[in-house]
Batch of 2 targets.
Target 1
Amino acid sequence: MNDTISIQNDKTLGIIITLAGALLMSLDPIFIRFSGVSGFDTAFLFGLFTAISMPIFIQARDPRGLIGALQASGWPVVLSGLLMLGSATGLVLSIKNTSIANTFVILSATPALSALFSWLLLKEVTQRSTWISIIAVMIGIAIVVSGSFESGNWYGDSLAIFSVTCLSINQTLLRKYQNVSRMASVGFGGFLLAIVMFFLATPSSYSMDTWIIMGVMGLFTAPFGRVLSQVATRYITAPEVGMILMIEAVLAPFFGYLFFAEIPEINSIIGGTIILVTIFLYAASSITKVEN
């Protein structure tokens, strides 16, 4: 009886932690839009503050310390950081060039694309249900992007596709190299992002408001959200975490409407519905298999 209560409490805690992480990460586009600077400048500040916050988190949470975590991670952390550079750049510039709804609907395809890259790169056996999910997700993305060609947002959608591709490959890499510190990967990606964007940014022109807004995002909401999503896997399964994190695709457009009066186009709604339903069914099926 006590074991059952303990398991139920752990599951409840895991769900609460995941929801908190999803809420914090869904605030990213709000800070990015309110930064008041170009996409390159926003990416520079995002990278800079992430590169500051992640080492602090590692030093505080990882018993190995920063140097020990990097040494244990080895060379894959460099490749993971480069992929984080690509995904973060695509995310920031996408939000600057298309609707928040489109960006997060496309990003919600991560689980299906990760399964595809696991099959291509790791030669993992891919079940029929996974292939069906991948095809359905691709159809959903095509519908979303087709609407953007009419509205002129195709460039931002393309950046979101680039971002989700880098993110999915990175997840596949981390699946193979389990010893890589996730926080070190995020921190190294932020470090690379800050260096690359520094040559395209103009830090001397930033207002105090810009520094404060991006500081709150880069030091607190963005890293805390990502750390919480990792911590949640201690209490519930990875598929469960992935399914709950899908709420980002609902919360982010809601905040976009609340703060910027953005109303998703019909193509985004149709394509997004296909993607979200597909990922929900795929994640639910994965959870059932894990429990069995």
Target 2
Amino acid sequence: MITSTFTIVATDGAEWGVAVASRVLAVGAIVPAADASWGVVATQAAVNVGWKRAGMSLLKQGKPAQETVDLLVAEDPSPDVRQLIVLDRAGRAAAHSGERCQQWAGQIVGEGFAVAGNLLSGADVIESMASAYRSSSGPLVQRLLLSLESGDAAGGDRRGRQSAAVQVVRLAGGIDGLDDRVCDLRVDDHPDPVRELRRLAGIQFGDAGEAPSSAPRPAAD
């Protein structure tokens, strides 16, 4: 399965999160895995969903993000068509973009965050995402949404829009402190999923702010 996707993973030191959008059904069920005790894993392009469980297992063993990426890539028979982002508990990020991922594909790794995408309208998608995250402040969920909105406004998945998701975790951050789920929102099928995701976040958290207007999108291939 090809999951053409743009994704950000990030931490502010207290919370860890991931936001993703794509022209596939229910991307939130495919790409991300987050655990406040260990970190975040996102798998996309010619997606290997087994990387979520395997990556989290390596993080639980104390492997840093880069070593986790290196081990998963080394053991995979087709790493050249896959994309992977890992963020460990210490806030170190690492990413892999296979040389045969559908273009445009690439990644940016920064301090406490990483963005990556494939089958994008261009490099400005992830550049806009990284810039929006770096220049933002406030709760992590808001910063993730701003980054995702910026990537969407820059063109996003060049085939169009369909689904989006955001997950944020914090130790004892869930209902009554019984799990780590601060936020786990998914838009599985919608003509403007990133904007709908913002609306849902507004319901959960109150005033989530205004999303930027969406850029025109090329016709689907």
